[in-house]
């Protein structure tokens, strides 16, 4: 893949995350200051390589799971240079650090992630699973509308949630931040979801996680940073602050 193709792919991922509709060549031509024909040729190659797809005739392109994986790996390579918006950082830190009891601290972290990402927030510590607010994204609004495809998707998402905690116990992802995109998910492979989770230390479990479950169409840069920051903050508060330590009930 050429450098320009990489840039075009990243732009498609970011534009699609923002507008929730296929990205056309005319928009990208303006961004890259080249002709629409040049962009169409580059998009055709990206499609041939499996990074983007055309959902229907005469439409723009959307990323595939492979395209999202390339983008996420690119973000991971940059690492700590990418930081979430400062206001989001402050909101997360304030809500978590003033949680009081451990249960409230964890729920505050999950609720704040929901508010900032509009996805389903989850945390699992020991044998307890915390969840908050099923999806508030266009993909899942359509999924719950009652159409045949929507019913299938809701069932697949429910299957993923039902099996999430036992899978985490068995697989025990050991990275500070893990991203499972679409069919990479070991459960609910066809649900069109991405699971972004952060592993952190706590006095209650050697494998504690917090994260979000949402559509593959994500603002991965911000969400990954927020989830990683949530894990770091919970570890600091639950593990290092004796005033918050206590027995989870």
Structure write-up:
- There is one protein chain.
- The protein contains nine helices and seven strands.
- The protein is α+β, with helices and mostly antiparallel strands.
- The strands form two sheets. The chain has a five-stranded antiparallel beta sheet with strand order 4-3-7-6-5, sandwiched between helices. Strands 1-2 form a two-stranded antiparallel ribbon.
- β6 (193-202) and β7 form a beta hairpin.
- α2 (25-32) packs across α3 (36-48) and α6 (102-117) packs antiparallel against α9 (220-240).
- The longest helix has 24 residues, at 148-171.
- The protein is elongated, with a radius of gyration of 19 Å.
- Mean pLDDT is 82; it is low at 144-152.
Averaged pLDDT: 82
Helix percentage range:
40-55%
Largest sheet geometry: 5 strands, antiparallel
Computed Rg: 19 Å
Question: Structural class, please?
Answer: alpha+beta
How far the N terminus sits from the C terminus, by CA atoms, comes to 52 Å
Total count of strands: 7
Total helices: the number is 9
The best one-word shape is: elongated
Instruction: Name the poorly predicted regions.
Output: 144-152
Q: Major sheet: order of its strands? A: 4-3-7-6-5
Order of helices and strands: HHHEEHHHEEHHEEEH
Estimate what percentage of residues fall within beta strands: 15-25%
